[in-house]
Amino acid sequence: MIPAAFDYIRATSAEEALAALTEHGDDAKLMAGGQSLIPLMRYRLVTPGVVVDIGNLDGDLRGISVNGDTVRIGALTRHTELEHSAELEATCPLLNHVASLVGDPAVRHRGTLGGSLAHADPASDLPAAVLALGATLVARGPGGEREIAASDFFTGFLESVLAPDEMLTEVRVPVTADGWNYQKFNRRAQDWAIVGVAVCRGGRGVSLVNMGPTPMRASAVEEAVAGGATAAEAAAHAADETDPPNDLNGDADYRSHLARVLTRRALEAAGFA
Amino acid sequence: MVANAVQIRLSVNGESHDLEVEPRTLLVYALRDDIGLTGTNIGCDSSSCGACTVLVDGRSVKSCTMLAVQAEGAEITTIEGLAATSDGDGLHPMQQAFHEYHGLQCGYCTPGMILASVSLIDEYPDLDESGVREGLEGNLCRCTGYNNIVKAVLQVAGKEA
Questions:
Q1: Which end of chain B, N or C, is surrounded by fewer C-beta atoms within 10 Å?
Q2: Mean pLDDT over residues B112-131, rounded?
């Protein structure tokens, strides 16, 4: 399958990319690694008139650095770089681990953290990780930069608060060396999670993959944990206020059951009693 | 050629190719149709099967999930150029191992499987059998000839099965 025709702009700076987005508005799509966008374009689920390629941009947009209690990750950092980063392993190993579970090695060699977040797929791994970590996402637009809490970022199926003329530039996560876990349940190689659960003990963050139209926090579980519930008691609320899909991999009841079981396992593995 | 075609220069197997392509041209079609390197196979066209795997700067990439224009500036290695990347005049060690262990049946997945394996053991030098199986999850063999493929990869990794 071949994508519909489009015009191609290879941006040589973030400013140039933003100018192209400002000029073309909704008709333009940013492409970083293309591992989510190109499949959508091949199926013609997305038919942008203009593709703005930011995949070769460098500098602050790529790489990992630690400043005190905060780990700063450039939006164009590839999954393979997250997976193998010793600096990240020492400061936020949840992200190493989750990145190592995305797709397959070939996808991880091209896909980027910012691209995965901006794609806002409820079935993706990394959005759940940044939700559980309580990350801050940094977006740049014509009016400058703004910071967005990860919990405010995802608004609908494949939709986020990013405006058509904004791009993600950076992800900031608190140093979280221990007390974390990610459970990914699937049945086929390289597949998305049927259900996934990320837990970060320090910030009492719990998030769910594929339990609704967006990547979501398990708010009822978080509240139960904060109220002193045991892991088993809190996990019983994992499917509260969710809207899991029915599809070939499982119906909503099955997903709700998985969410409760996986949440208990994730809470216990992260050190909750 | 269509109105919005662009001029690109691709470096494939050490040779430079000047091409005129539509931006929507997937790398695998540029390799096969414009450059004539048909060793890279098209399987599923949906990022699932890995038959179209090539090396981009030494790392496995599904060439149906990369635009030809994105590959400008990178060094592409296809199955035709793999042997030349190794010492000696014969096959690349991974090709030789697939030959010796009969790591193929119909052969359709083989170019992608070999290139994915070369990338895999370079990226993860300490793999055991289960690591090889998981590491090749993005490459499907519909003959289901995985056992000999895994044996071949383990042999090259220095961990004979």
A1: N
A2: 97
